[in-house]
Amino acid sequence: MSCGEPHETDCSEILDHLYEFLDKEMPDSDCVKFEHHFEECSPCLEKYGLEQAVKKLVKRCCGQDDVPNDLRAKVMGRLDLIRSGHSVPEHDVTATPPTPQES
User: Fold this and answer.
1) Is residue 50 located within the same domain as residue 76?
2) Smallest Cα–Cα separation from 49: which of 20, 74, 18?
C-alpha cells in the first residue's frame, strides 16, 4: 500500500511496524516519524485507523477473557521468532510432534 508519493519513511516500513506504534512499543523518535508519515500519506493513515478500531473492538469484546497459558506461550514464542528475524513457518511451531502411533 502506498499513495505513490515519496516519503522520508517508506510505507512498507510504516506498515511493517504498525502494531509496535499502536501498542506504544517504540521509541518516541520513531513515533514522531510515524505521525509525520500519517500526515502525508492517507492510505497509511486509513490503515492505521482501521487497525486501531479493530484493536479497540477486540479489547472491548474479549478484554475480560482469560487467555489460556498454552496459547499465551505459543503467541509469545512466535513473537520472539519474528523479533529475532527468523522466518515463521505456516504450521504450529510450538506443537509437539505426533507420536509414532498418531502418525
Assistant:
1) no
2) 18
